[in-house]
Amino acid sequence: MTQNPHKIFLICGRKRSGKTVFASKFLKANNKKTPLVYQSPHDSTFNFLPLVTRPEKWLNTPARTSELFIEYEDFLQMAYRAKNSIIIFDDFTGYEDSRISLDFKRVISRNRHNGNTILIITHSLSDTPKKIFNFIDGVILFKTKENMIGNINRLPDFTELSAAHNRLKNAPDFAPEFVKI
Prior knowledge:
Mean pLDDT: 77
Helix content: 25-40%
Number of strands: 8
């Protein structure tokens, strides 16, 4: 996939399908951009980065030198000011719900002006806020366990997403499909 600094992608797939590994490889391939990552407190996938941000208000573990523990709202302020960066929201539905926060919308609206790429990682299309599809340029879909028929009224470009989902059922793991939105 060619990297465009003005794109927003949704990466979706079941646990251990390869979505975070894909994002890590994307970061390494685009190492001229500054990475900003917000991930769950128990995930260590992005530890190769000099700065990893995590929600830590409920955790009593000491920080490693590569970590900065901040709250989600503070991360959104950093992301809003970021320029020429790759911003990753790992496990996105753990932080945003169906009413997408105003601060997240601000990050999205400034994205194209600031030359950023945003990767939004989630486990389920059905749990992803419907409004997010108004902002993204495409879906990088890995194998999921969901029933696509139940999503017919929730998702845009359902035909394309459903076709990709069906192709992935018989595909090997770690082989995503790209669906342009």
